[in-house]
Specification:
Layout lengths: L3 H4 L2 H13 L2 H8 L3 H15 L4 E4 L2 E4 L1 H33 E7 L6 H11 L4 E7 L1 H9 L5 E4 L8 E15 L21 E3 L5 H11 L8 E3 L3 H9 L4 E5 L4 H5 L4 E2 L7 E10 L6 H22 L8
Parallel strand pairs: 3-4, 3-5, 7-8, 7-9
Antiparallel strand pairs: 1-2, 5-11, 6-9, 6-10, 6-11
InterPro entries: LysR_HTH_N (IPR000847), LysR_subst-bd (IPR005119), WH-like_DNA-bd_sf (IPR036388), WH_DNA-bd_sf (IPR036390)
Pfam family, one: HTH_1
Organism: Tabrizicola oligotrophica
Length: 315
């Protein structure tokens, strides 16, 4: 009896209740789309596991014994619990099927909400959720299952993803409009080595562009102060504190207002790409997959509308 729970199955409980209610193995078999021998065999196995007789034949019917009658409420509880569990899963699955959890790097906040709003217009039934973090935060959200889809630049290397490029991502070098270099027609990389810079945290896409720009030319990295957001970097540059590499997609309003200048530097702008991606091992739900397909097909046109034909289109 020690391993009784391992031998008794939920299916046996379902068959048992049908037999008790119908008082016939044949009618129980019809209700459950089984054969009468299959019902009889399962009831024999259940009786053997319990070490007790459950049914007694009485003409063409079977009558539950005292043990069987005592077992009925427990069997009913087990079957009802299963039904409740199935209902919960079905309800949850319906929510998951309509759920789209998008994690985006902070730079993508300049166009990500527009993409999501256009998607919502076409799929009003979708449950859209958005989170914004730095590169490591977005990767962590994917790894821990807190995000279904990500919008980011360079895809992560430590996890396998399915990625789709949908737009160009230009990086430029910015200064205050009164900075001496703002009037220069051509700036060499070597001219920037002694200039103070503002940079994002290590590992961010913007920081990688900064370091690659100098190391590609075998130049030392210039003195730099780290800041935790593009917004803070823009404010500092507008205060004429230093120069900074930044995504061209983040400075449209500031350039239009004449508060920032884009420097004419050899090797700039540096063009990267925007991707929509998800973990390879975790297939997106129906709505999340619809979002991926939407960004792939409609993202290029939306980006062109936001940033123009040069920097908004697919590569």
């Amino acid at each position: 009896m020690d391993d009784l729970g391992e031998k008794i199955t939920l299916r046996q409980m379902q068959i048992f209740l049908a037999a008790v209610e119908s008082r016939s193995f044949m009618r129980a078999a019809e209700r459950l789309s089984l054969t009468p021998p299959a019902v009889s065999m399962q009831m024999s196995r259940l009786a053997e596991c319990l070490g007790a007789t459950l049914f007694e034949k009485e003409g063409r019917t079977v009558q539950p014994t005292e043990v069987a009658t005592a077992l009925v409420p427990y069997a009913e509880r087990m079957v009802e619990t299963l039904k409740d569990a199935v209902l919960v899963v079905e309800a949850l699955q319906g929510r998951i099927d309509s759920q789209v959890r998008v994690a985006m790097v902070s730079t993508a906040r300049n166009f990500g909400p527009q993409l999501m709003q256009e998607f919502r217009k076409r799929h009003p039934e979708a449950d859209l959720q958005i989170s914004i973090a730095n590169r490591e935060g977005v990767i962590h959200a994917l790894e821990t299952g807190k995000a279904d889809v990500a919008l980011m630049g360079r895809p992560p290397g430590r996890v396998e993803v399915t990625q789709y490029q949908f737009a160009k991502h230009p990086y430029v070098l910015i200064s205050h409009p009164d900075h001496p270099l703002a009037r220069a027609r051509r700036i060499r990389r070597a001219d920037l080595v002694r200039m103070p810079f503002l940079v994002r945290e290590s590992g961010s896409g913007t920081r990688m562009v900064h370091e690659y720009f100098f190391r590609e030319a075998d130049l030392p990295l210039p003195p730099a102060q780290e800041m935790d957001s593009n917004a803070n970097i823009k404010q500092a540059v507008m205060g004429n504190m230093a120069l900074a590499f930044i995504s061209a997609h983040t400075i449209g309003l500031e350039r239009q207002a004449g508060k920032l200048s884009v420097l004419k530097v050899d090797g700039m702008p540096q063009i990267r790409d925007w991707y929509v991606l998800h973990l390879k091992r975790r297939k997106p739900g129906p709505a999340a997959q619809q979002f991926v397909d939407f960004v792939r097909s409609e993202g290029p046109d939306i980006m062109r509308g936001l940033y123009g034909p040069d920097f908004g289109a697919e590569a």
